[in-house]
Amino acid sequence: MVTKANDDADSKMTAVQKAARLLQAIASAEESKSLADLAEQAKMPKPSVHRLLLQLEDVGFVQRDLSGKGYTVGASWLRLSVDALVAQARQPIVRGIMQKLVDRVKESCNLSVLQNHEVLYLERVECDWPLRMQLQSGSRVPVHATASGKLLIAQMSEKNRRALLNSIHREKFTDSTIVDLDEMEEECRTIRKNDLSMNKEEYHRGLIGVSVPLRRSDNTVIATLSIHAPSFRMSVETALSYAPLLKESAKEIVTELGL
């Protein structure tokens, strides 16, 4: 319930502070929230929240769900968030941490996030092997057939995960690609249990990958750190043996970015 104290606090906040508080309430919600729910969570009067939502919707920072009654993150806000992550990922200190990892495991490394139902490479450091998968920063790969993609969707609720997977074409790239939703649910349970994800030739035949999460201080997974290599050079067992190094590097990146 919004009280008189909330009204008094609201009157003392600037417009930017109010918008920031409202955006935080929307961002922290796993599903869309109604105006009343947002007012309660942000501890702001409904009229103030309604006015801010209209303004934020106008610039694309929030959008309504299919029911028209709930609010969620908008396209402009998503683009800005990814742009901010890209800017952070390309800082020399982050690339330096990734380069140190590549020097130790002798395989290519990438830092990725989920965007528009695909995995986006924020940054990538290549190894020196002549035979390697050539991908650049800004490349996109399928969410259902990569270690990083599966790790990211494993953090979602089952409802949201199934909705995402049903909205995309789940191409069967190889015999190992998981396209069945129930099988993917089992895979996601294993990923959450192990706190890492494997790609066992699911995107390209002969390509193995392993991915670990980057977690904020509140334990939210915001990105993934991964390596991949030809199977003749890196077996599944070898990839798993690199997991502690990956997790160490992921923690370093989170610390350096102040997340």
UniProtKB/TrEMBL annotation:
Any one GO BP annotation for this protein: negative regulation of DNA-templated transcription
Residue ranges occupied by any HTH iclR-type domain in the UniProt entry: 13-75
Example GO molecular function: DNA binding
Leader peptide range in chain numbering: none
Pfam families, per the entry: HTH_IclR (PF09339), IclR_C (PF01614)
Gene3D superfamilies in alphabetical order: 3.30.450.40, Winged helix-like DNA-binding domain superfamily/Winged helix DNA-binding domain (1.10.10.10)
Limits of the IclR-ED domain: 76-259
SMART domains: HTH_ICLR
Annotated keywords: DNA-binding, Transcription, Transcription regulation
Record PANTHER family: HELIX-TURN-HELIX TRANSCRIPTIONAL REGULATOR, ICLR FAMILY, HTH-TYPE TRANSCRIPTIONAL REPRESSOR ALLR
Protein known as: Acetate operon repressor
Species whose genome carries this gene: Afipia felis
Lineage, opening ranks: Bacteria, Pseudomonadati, Pseudomonadota, Alphaproteobacteria, Hyphomicrobiales
